[in-house]
């Protein structure tokens, strides 16, 4: 309970005497001694008075804590028990009062250092004693009970009490709701909403400003401290904790906040670079390291981090410049990595210069594995080597996996990759791969871009000239082919191949000319060359199969059509071509073919001899044993007609067990519907009442 009216001086002295009496007792000899600590005191207030330690000293360490009941600060001077702190201007039932000691020292320099905002509590007796920091605490005016906001109106000193220091605390920004009012240290007024260094924590009412708010809060308070903190060092500390946990995005956000508060701090930029490296945003990380070095040219850690970045990017000369920083020993691990990457890059350059593409591929893979795994140029070199080795699909995949860097403006002007500027080399490789895929427009656009970036490079200039000529040769060949001038078209395509021998499209186009000229063997040869570069080239497969049919190479034609059937399952033309090739293959082997109609109905077998002849074929024969009166047989028969068109290489037969019991008896058919698959007269599979999925899976398996 609080009183708003004044209290007489006599009342205060009376309360003080009562307090002193309760803290001592008389032995038989009449000497006053301190009461033992286990004796409970009931002063009507949740805050118990300070009890002296031996010698009368309570505490010399300035610490802080808080609760909803009030605050005690400072330390007592040495002396007899008469110097015990007195209750000043407070009521027993008041929860917003303040207990002040006889002497207050602000920010002692001879005590242990504590982090800003941290506090420590000591307790004597049965109630906690709360210290509110190392600074002086101003009490309210005498005879005034502190209700509502408590604003310091001057320091109240008791007679005989010595003030060690009158220096006031410097307020940090921060809030913590406390008690019933606002307690402000240092004599400065504070507005609601001001934040402490450790953030804000809600208690019962009011505001505490100063070091180390106490009480709970836990993770929620720490998170609130992050959100509202204006101390860049605290931001960096929490960012470092997130970085160590692998939370790079969270760490980056905190470093950004620290930089926003203190943009001239080199360490913040260096830490931000580390978070960006964790996110594999290497170009941004390079810029952050360079900014840190600009702010502090002697910042060794920033130099080493930038050196590691350049190793990842495959820039060994730049990496050496920063790793081997004058006056400092380089990191031996990073130095070894640099030397290994440099060795493989040198070998890769030598192999590429003489056209040894297998060695080029081996060395570039070794350089990437050694640490240069973020280099777009090395990934492009790998794609180029695969292309030259006629592995177009793998080359295109490697091209698609090149690390994507944002426009990178920190390439030194003297930096070269295989003799050309780094960005130009990326477009140079892309142009070659697009050209081999037949994407002439994309290829021309890429090589023109490379020429704009590095107009003086010989390789780029030659490639630009060749690509222009290849495009012209392709266009001329297409026009001649349309005019049915096939021989001239062959010559035009040949001119393009002389300039670009890895162009699968030109080989395939020339194969079409040879086919029209009746030179099917040469057509097959050109198709083989095209498929060697691009194995899944559909047009080349179709033209090779057609040429093999002309050459009556039925097995080779069937093999190509089966591959096409898988690639183009809904292409009826391919299915029919496969069917006729299979029929021709069977006839060439002397087999009797019963089903001569593509996509025809399932053949009905009624006699035992006919049945045995039908299943003797080397190719698979699927026999459906059914009964006309059975509903399940009728349903599965419809699906069998679909399979007959879908798998023309398979013989589909049906036997009505009611009309042909001899066949059913010979094959031991007791349940319908039953499916049996035969090859060369022998049963290889039997299914009783199968589902459509199981039936098709078995047909697909034995159709190959």
Annotation keywords:
5-stranded mixed β-sheet; two-stranded antiparallel sheet; 25 helices; 704 residues; disordered N terminus; 15 strands; elongated; alpha/beta
Brief synopsis:
This protein has 704 residues and is α/β, with parallel strands linked by helices.
Q: What would the principal axes of the Cα set say about the shape?
A: elongated
Average pLDDT level: 73
The unreliable regions are 1-10, 22-221
Order of strands in the sheet with most strands: 11-13-12-14-15
**Strands, count:** 15
Report the biggest beta sheet as strand number plus sense, adding barrel if it closes: 5 strands, mixed
**Class derived from helix and strand content:** alpha/beta
Number of helices: 25
Beta fraction:
5-15%
What is the first-to-last residue Cα distance?
A: 96 Å
**What is the gyration radius calculated from CA atoms?**
46 Å
Range of helix content: 40-55%
Pfam families: Thioredoxin (PF00085), TPR_11 (PF13414), TPR_16 (PF13432), TPR_6 (PF13174)
InterPro entries: Thioredoxin-like_sf, Thioredoxin_domain, TPR-like_helical_dom_sf, TPR_rpt, TTL1-4
Organism: Forsythia ovata
Protein name: TPR repeat-containing thioredoxin TTL1
Structure report:
Strand 14 and strand 15 form a beta hairpin. The protein has a five-stranded mixed sheet. Residues 1-10 and 22-221 have low confidence and may be disordered. It has 704 residues and is of the alpha/beta class. The radius of gyration is 46 Å and the shape is elongated. Helices cover 48% and strands 8% of the residues. Helix 5 (266-278) runs antiparallel to helix 6, helix 5 packs parallel to helix 7 and helix 14 (440-453) runs antiparallel to helix 15. The termini are far apart. The protein is built from 25 helices and 15 strands.
């Amino acid at each position: 309970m609080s009183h708003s009216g004044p209290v007489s001086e006599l009342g205060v002295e009376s309360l003080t005497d009562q307090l002193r009496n309760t803290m001592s007792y008389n032995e038989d000899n009449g000497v006053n001694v301190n009461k033992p600590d286990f004796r409970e005191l009931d002063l009507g207030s949740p805050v118990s008075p300070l009890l002296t330690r031996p010698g009368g000293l309570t505490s010399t360490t300035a610490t802080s804590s808080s609760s909803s009941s009030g605050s005690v600060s400072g330390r007592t001077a040495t002396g007899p028990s008469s110097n015990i702190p007195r209750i000043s201007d407070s009521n027993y039932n008041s929860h917003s009062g303040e207990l002040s000691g006889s002497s207050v020292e602000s920010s002692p320099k001879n005590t242990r250092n504590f982090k800003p905002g941290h506090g420590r509590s000591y307790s004597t007796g049965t109630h906690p004693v709360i210290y509110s920091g190392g600074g002086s605490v101003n009490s309210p005016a005498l005879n005034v009970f502190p209700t509502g906001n408590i604003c310091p109106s001057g320091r109240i000193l008791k007679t005989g009490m010595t003030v060690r220091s009158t220096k006031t605390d410097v307020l940090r920004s921060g809030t913590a709701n406390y008690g019933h009012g606002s307690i402000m240290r240092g004599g400065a007024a504070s507005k609601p909403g001001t934040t402490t260094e450790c953030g804000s924590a809600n208690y019962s009412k009011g505001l505490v400003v100063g070091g180390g708010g106490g009480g709970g809060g836990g993770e929620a308070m720490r998170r609130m401290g992050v959100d509202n903190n204006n101390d860049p060092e605290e931001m960096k500390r929490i960012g470092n904790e997130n970085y160590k946990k692998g939370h790079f995005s969270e760490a980056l956000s905190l470093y950004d906040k620290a930089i926003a508060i203190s943009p001239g701090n080199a360490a913040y930029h260096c830490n931000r670079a580390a978070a960006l490296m964790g996110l594999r945003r290497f170009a941004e990380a390079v810029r952050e390291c360079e900014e840190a070095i600009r702010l502090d040219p002697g910042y060794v850690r920033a130099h080493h981090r930038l050196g590691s970045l350049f190793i990842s990017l495959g820039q060994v000369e730049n990496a050496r410049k920063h790793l081997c920083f004058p006056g400092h020993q380089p990191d031996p691990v990073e130095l070894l990595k640099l030397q290994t990457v440099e060795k493989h890059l040198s070998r890769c350059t030598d192999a590429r210069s003489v056209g040894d593409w297998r060695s080029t591929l081996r060395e570039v893979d070794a350089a990437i594995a050694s640490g240069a795994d973020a280099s777009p140029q090395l990934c492009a070199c790998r794609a180029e080597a695969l292309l030259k080795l006629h592995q177009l699909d793998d080359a295109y995949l490697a091209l698609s996996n090149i690390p994507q860097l944002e426009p990178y403006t920190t390439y030194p002007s003297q930096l070269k990759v295989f003799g050309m500027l780094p960005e130009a080399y990326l477009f140079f490789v892309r142009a070659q791969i697009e050209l081999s895929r037949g994407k002439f427009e994309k290829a021309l656009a890429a090589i023109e871009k490379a020429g704009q970036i590095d107009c003086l490079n010989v390789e780029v200039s030659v490639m630009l000239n060749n690509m222009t000529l290849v495009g012209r040769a392709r266009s001329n060949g297409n026009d001649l082919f349309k005019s049915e001038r096939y021989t001239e078209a062959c010559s035009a395509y040949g001119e393009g191949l002389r300039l670009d021998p890895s162009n699968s499209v030109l080989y395939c186009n020339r194969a079409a000319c040879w086919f029209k000229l009746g030179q099917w063997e040469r057509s097959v040869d050109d198709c083989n060359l095209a498929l060697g570069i691009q194995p899944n080239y559909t047009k080349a497969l179709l033209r090779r199969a057609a040429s093999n049919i002309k050459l009556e190479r039925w097995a080779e034609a069937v093999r190509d059509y089966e591959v096409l059937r898988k690639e183009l399952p809904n292409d009826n033309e391919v299915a029919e071509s496969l069917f006729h090739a299979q029929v021709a293959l069977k006839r060439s082997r002397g087999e009797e073919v019963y089903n001569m109609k593509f996509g025809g109905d399932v053949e009905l077998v009624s006699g035992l001899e006919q049945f045995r002849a039908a299943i003797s074929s080397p190719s698979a024969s699927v026999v459906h044993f059914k009964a006309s009166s059975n509903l399940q047989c009728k349903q599965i028969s419809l699906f069998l007609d679909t399979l007959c068109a879908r798998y023309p290489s398979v013989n589909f037969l049906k036997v009505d067990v009611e009309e042909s019991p001899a066949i059913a008896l010979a094959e031991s058919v007791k349940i319908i519907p039953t499916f049996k698959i035969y090859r060369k007269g022998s049963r290889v599979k039997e299914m009783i009442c199968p589902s459509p999925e199981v039936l098709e899976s078995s047909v697909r398996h034995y159709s190959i």
